[in-house]
Amino acid sequence: MQGTVQLEATDNVATALRPLKADEKDVAEQIPRGHKIALSDIHKGDEIIKYGQLIGYASQDIQRGQHVHVHNLEYRNVQRDYVFGGDGPGSTGGDCTDQFMGYVRENGTVGVRNTIAVLSSVNCSATAARRVAGHFDESRLRDFPNIDGVTAFVHGTGCGMADSGEGFESLQRVMWGYARNPNIAAVLMIGLGCEINQIDWLLEAYGLQSGPLFQILNIQDRCGLARTVTAGIEKIEAMLPIVNRNSRQSCPASELKVALQCGGSDAWSGITANPALGHAVDKLVAIGGSGVLAETPEIYGAEHLLTARATSPEIASRLIERIDWWHDYTARNGASLNNNPSPGNKAGGLSTILEKSLGAVSKGGKTPLRGVYRYAEHVSARGFTFMDSPGYDPASVTGQIAGGCNLVAFTTGRGSAFGSKPSPCIKIASNPEMFRRMEDDMDINAGKILEGGSTIEEVGQEIYQLLLDVASGKPSKSELQGLGEFEFVPWQIGAVV
Q1: First and final CA of the chain: distance in angstroms?
Q2: Distance between CA atoms of 234 and 244, rounded to whole angstroms?
Q3: I need a labelling partner for 86 at 20 to 30 A (CA). Which of 44, 135, 139, 397 fits?
Q4: How many other β-carbons are positioned within 10 Å of the β-carbon of residue 66?
Q5: 3-state SS of the chain?
Q6: What is the structure's pLDDT at 259?
């Protein structure tokens, strides 16, 4: 059908490349750009197929050429026949000649930024952490050119919670994960003193020890906020010359671990930006690097494509266990996995979570799935892996960074002002119009694929090269705008009491 793109031969809908008018050939009514048009008559109750996969059911009869969207396309819970443990194309650990300039840590991990972190154990110490970090502006760091910044990572929890169980364990994994992220060179952890999330418990649970580059403070022990801030500033000042001794050196690209994210998606995300990022991930995995997909609610309905790529039945089973957990989690909180897509997603042409998920999983490329991890759990496997997380971008990325990701790649169709620290984020626009509107925020225009100027593979190579460049110190657009400090959002699971 002219002016549209049909993704698979079995699809009974196509996507409008431009606004379609009702008087055009084979067009029965006006179709917005990026929205779906019926390629044949579809009866009420029939499956709607896109990407060669089910995205929903016709809620009424639909004639060829009519608009297919939320008014006539309905979501239903889908029972999948899972293939457990296959072996997709691609491999890890090949010869790696691509390099970037990174920071090699004592434990052998490699960072792409050299940051000092001020972590709060509880919201009650958040102000102290921000004041300590805020003291070290550009003028005070001018004599330490190898330091990328002193950043406060504060949150709204840490007390009024159970001292065991999912919520507590998740927060402790986030705290430990940020302290150990290779982009963090030194840590000051500040608590109040009486909170549930005790710093001493964290140190004991994860084997952390105080030293010149890992310091702790409690406001109650220090006799108040002002004295704590003064002491914190003194501790950071002692760290600065030590951290500044770190310098970049040539490192293999296999040391990159990239968090794969999308937000503000549209119909083009699964056609341009996501598969292009997937191509970059395949290149990275082939030389021993890692890509970490997340956002469990946004792979729902497409998880069967991931289980088929799992390298063992056990890995596939872990993914299904997380899907089952989410069914229970949403049900007991009066929600549904199809609360997603958001209004903005729907305005961009996405109708159901199944459609959104099928496009989202393409960020992970085509290589085998080598691990499934809980939220903020350390990602130990190389290659393509998955981390359980909500679809809320700040919370999801927080978990991935805690898991060890030293870079973030973020696709968007509607637009996003997201950024992250300490792991820099590159943003990839799915369509050219949004890229031109938000060029100060977007690093790469994958919309060139729609205009015929580039292929998925060419944009994938562009993404891959930019990852190397940003890893070597080139600032991303979000870094240039100072984003990332307020996007630290640990996922709050469980009751607040």
Answers
A1: 58
A2: 16
A3: 397
A4: 19
A5: CCCEECCCCCCCEEEECCCECCCCCCCCCCECCCCEEECCCECCCCEEEECCEEEEEECCCECCCCEECCCCEECCCCCCCCCCCCCCCCCCCCCCCCEEEEEECCCCCEECCCEEEEEECCHHHHHHHHHHHHHCCHHHHCCCCCCCEEEEECCCCCCCCCCCCHHHHHHHHHHHHHHHCCCEEEEEEEECCCCCCCHHHHHHHHCCCCECCEEEEECCCCCCHHHHHHHHHHHHHHHHHHHHCCCCEEEEHHHCEEEEEECCCCCCCCCCHHHHHHHHHHHHHHCCCEEEECCHHHCCCCHHHHHCCECCHHHHHHHHHHHHHHHHHHHHCCCCHHHCCCHHHHHCCCCCHHHHHHHHHHHHCCCCEEEEECCCCCCCCCEEEEECCCCCHHHHHHHHHHCCCCEEEEEECCCCCCCCCCCCEEEEECCHHHHHHCCCCCCEEHHHHCCCCCCHHHHHHHHHHHHHHHHCCCCCHHHHCCCCCCCCCCCCCCCCC
A6: 98
* Residue 71: other Cβ atoms inside 10 A: 10
Query: Three-state SS for 294?
Result: coil
Answer yes or no: are the C-beta atoms of 386 and 301 closer than 8 Å: no
Q: Give yes or no for a contact between 487 and 419, defined as CB atoms under 8 angstroms apart.
A: yes
Q: What is the pLDDT of residues 391-411, one digit of tens each?
A: 999 999 999 999 999 999 999
Residue 133 structure tokens: 């970090």
* Helix ranges (DSSP H) in 411-452: 432-437
Note the pLDDT tens digit of each residue in 154-178. 999 999 999 999 999 999 999 999 9
Q: Which helix (H) or strand (E) holds 191?
A: strand 184-191
Residues 72, 383 contacting (CB under 8 angstroms): no
> What counts of helices (H) and strands (E) characterise the chain?
14, 21
